[in-house]
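The records we work with from here on pair a chain with its fold. Taken together, the tokens spell out the fold as the letters spell out the chain. The record below shows the convention in full.
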Amino acid sequence: MGIANNMANRAEAAKGAMKKNFGRVTRNRSLQAEGAVDQAKGNTKQTGVKLKNTLLSPTRAITRAEVIGTVLGVALLLAGLIFGIPLVTTIGIILAVAGVVLLVMGSMGRPTFGRRQY
């Protein structure tokens, strides 16, 4: 995503905010709702771009906890599905989701478990 797309997303969100406020002032509910939708679309696109940039950042170091949790979770999930053991499948799903959550939280710079860095 280039700077032009970034600016277009911000402009869409700003246009939606202005449309929403103008609808509020004029008591036009349809214009207000349309502005809220435009603003939400622009903000959602911006969030997607930010998430993609942080996940694909070359300076982002993936930690052991993220990799081990995700890989172990997927392995247990597949083993549980292949051998038909529902408990192992459930544990695999939980570990895989926890690993992905740690990956996303760590990539966004959020402190995890009271630590700022690993």
